[in-house]
């Protein structure tokens, strides 16, 4: 962001922002309150150390861009479908129009980093995938982010007759897993994996 844009976030002039950055003047508390409400990590600004977690509202850079929070699936510690309170590793910006063309609501999209090789052939270790939290019903086969016994996993999911779920790894070295209806209390579908971001090999 330019100094003018960042100053606008904090309700100060470009000149004031320049003086703060040049260490010629110190901002007051309302400056930090304003930038924190816009998603800035105030601890990082003050100390150079990032906060352990970022439970903040993300900012659109412009009307046409959406800020998508990116999480490390392995670092995620909380339970349930909410990612609030989890450490945001980075933020990627996507044109809202491009997401809309894919039928995706930016407010429902999060990115997660893929860990492991169980989805080899579809997703590689270290890839990023955009997850649509608005689609958690595996009526049609697809790849989903799930919470299984407190652990976040990415699997191909099929719903079987009687309500059971069949969790499939695309890597043939891993055996499929059936979740019986009576065990569904240990499983929560967090969202459908929609877009892969990774290296071309």
UniProtKB/TrEMBL annotation:
UniProt organism field: Halomonas citrativorans
Domain of life: Bacteria
UniProt keyword Cell cycle present: no
UniProt-listed Gene3D superfamilies: Umud Fragment, subunit A
Keywords tagged on the record: DNA-binding, Transcription, Transcription regulation
Name recorded for this polypeptide: LexA family transcriptional regulator
Domain Peptidase S24/S26A/S26B/S26C per the UniProt entry, residue ranges: 69-192
